[in-house]
Amino acid sequence: MRRLKHGGVERARDVTFKQGVASGDPTAHRATLWTRVDGLERDARVTLEVARDRGFDRVVERREVVARKRDNYAVKERVSGLDPGEQYYYRFFTRKRDSDVGRFRSTVPMDSNQPVRVGVFSCQDYESGFYPGHRALANDDLDVVVCLGDYIYERSFDESKVRVDKTGRNGDGEVQSLAEYRDKYALYHGDRELRDLRANHALMAIWDDHEVEDNWAGDRAGDKTIDPRIAFLKRRRNGFRAFFEHMPRMRNPRERFRIYDTLRFGRNLELFLLDERQYRSDQPCDDQVLAPCPENERNDPSRTLLGKQQMSWLKRTLRESDAVWKAVANQVMIMSVDFPAGSPINPDQWDGYGADRTELLTHIRDQRISDVAFLTGDIHTFFAGDVTPTGRQGPAQTGPPPVATEFVCGSVTSQGLLDSVGLSVQPDLGSLIVDGAVAPGDNPHFRYSNVKDKGYAVVEASRDELKVSFRTPASVKSRNSPVRTLKDFTVTRGIPRVEIT
Ligand SMILES: [Fe+2]
Fold first, then answer.
1. How much distance in Å is there from the Cα of 331 to the middle of ligand 1?
2. Is residue 34 pLDDT above 60, yes or no?
């Protein structure tokens, strides 16, 4: 036990912990613990306690921590000296008030053969519904939960409005200033199921576009904000800063807003977390969905999705990894979504950045890096399929052999192709979607697609196989909807092919 002195900073008194608690960045011996203190007007101390049991009889760490005004009274503490593969409990408190009790598991030791279980979700638009899937994930037996982006939505996209978001200067849910982004996270963390999920497992989140603005790219705005009140780079900084304030991740000492990283779980899994927004070039062809985009523009080698530095880091860490499964948690789809065959519909995903896709996938092929699985969000649709170096497969698997697999985990609530576009609005899309699947004939690389259901994925990495389960709630209109399995998949070690089980 150790007690830190915080010269002159008073203990917090009448405060609450409305946004709950969270943990992140777990290793075999360390983790980052998070809360936010409500009701403060200046810096103040609270106590953090970590124990081996829920009753806090076996305390392993107790320390005073300072909630600072400059951090919006978010508290993040790195604790160390943990034993590998163990369950720990933690809480923050003042003399009068306790936070919720959180729990997390330190990662299994490097020589462990234990199967590793990961919950994966993306796209939880508050206005589009409740989070019954988060309740199921919170109660699942998991080593970590990964959010692939769109943890918040910076404005209103859903006219059906199962829930109403009144954040923003105009009360219409649109946020641009730092204070407004902070209000947005507070709104989302008002949700009981999301708070329970954060309390029950370590969470690793990467941002996609809506943590800042729809379809932004590098230093360029997404051009869809009707009334841009703040210059884009300032707005992006506001979004990044609010993200880090509300996530259980420490900032990288070398690069303030770097989110790409790896996380290791024993012998069976290395998790690669990417950033496909901050370093990317602008989308080709004015980012038009369902519009023809010439190949030379899509594959222009001067354009990048990952940026030079992240690309060389990814290639090197993938090559050096001795984990059985290399799961790449990535924002946008790496398999093509074509209509018709050979003609991609969405230049915002890897399809619009062909040079980077070829570079990464030929590297995986040429370096014989086996057992790579991409885990993907963004598109509000479930897909599973085989990844070839071109992103696509020919009819009856006549194209190049696959080098990896991809699992796209649907959306927690956000509206998908069927809800938001509607078959009557876009007649061409009608032929793109057949019985809830995206034009299977045009995309032979898909083993499965489903544009109808909401949900998430659970991934289990073990010595001989990778199992992926797509799960779906009966409805997102009620917080208590039952959750069922939509489809189960297996990938056998050494064979980059998705099998439906
Ligand atoms: Fe989304």
1. 9
2. yes
Q: How far is CA 248 from CA 22, 91, 119, 188, 199, in A?
A: 6, 14, 16, 15, 11
Task: Provide the residue count of the chain.
Answer: 501
The predicted-structure confidence for 223-254, as pLDDT tens digits, reads as follows 788 899 999 999 999 999 999 999 999 988 88
* Residues facing residue 376 across a β-bridge: 330, 408
Nearest to 70 by CA among 99, 42, 36, 33: 42
**Within the chain, which residue ranges are assigned CATH 2.60.40.380?**
21-105
- DSSP string for residues in 259-304: --EEEEETTTEEEEE--SSTTPPPPSGGG-TTS---HHHHT-TT--
Kindly give, in sequence order, each residue whose CB lies less than 8 Å from that of residue 141, ignoring residues fewer than 6 positions away. 117
One CATH from 3.30.200.20, 1.10.1760.20, 3.40.50.10210, 3.60.21.70 for 116-500: 3.60.21.70
Q: Over the stretch 402-455, which tens digit does the pLDDT of each residue have?
A: 999 999 999 999 998 777 555 444 556 667 787 778 888 889 999 999 999 999
Alpha-carbon distance of 501 to 491, in angstroms, equals 10
Ligand 1 geometric centre to CA of 375 (Å): 14
Q: CATH 3.60.21.70 residue ranges in the chain? A: 116-500
For ligand 1, the distance from its centroid to the CA atom of residue 487, given in whole angstroms, is: 21
Contacts of range 27-30, beta carbons closer than 8 Å, 24 or more positions apart: 27/106, 27/107, 27/263, 27/264, 28/82, 28/84, 28/85, 28/106, 28/107, 28/108, 28/109, 28/110, 29/80, 29/81, 29/82, 29/83, 29/84, 29/106, 30/78, 30/79, 30/80, 30/82, 30/106
- Listed residue (372, 399, 377) closest to 388, CA to CA: 399
Give phi and psi for 258, each to the nearest 5: -85, 130
pLDDT at site 423: 45
Ligand 1 centroid to 134 CA: how many Å? 16
How many A from CA of 378 to the centre of ligand 1? 5
Distance 90 CA to ligand 1 centre (A): 32
The pTM of the whole model exceeds 0.85: yes
Beta strand extents in 52-86 (DSSP E only): 59-67, 74-79
Residues whose CB falls within 8 Å of the CB of residue 392, separated by 6 or more in sequence, listed in order? 335, 336, 338, 341, 342, 399, 443, 444, 445
- What confidence tens digit (pLDDT) does each residue in 89-133 have? 999 999 999 999 999 999 999 999 999 999 999 999 999 999 999
How many angstroms separate the alpha carbon of residue 414 from the centre of ligand 1? 6
pLDDT value at 28 more than 50? yes
Of 380, 315, 470, nearest in space to 128 by CA: 380
CATH number of 21-105: 2.60.40.380
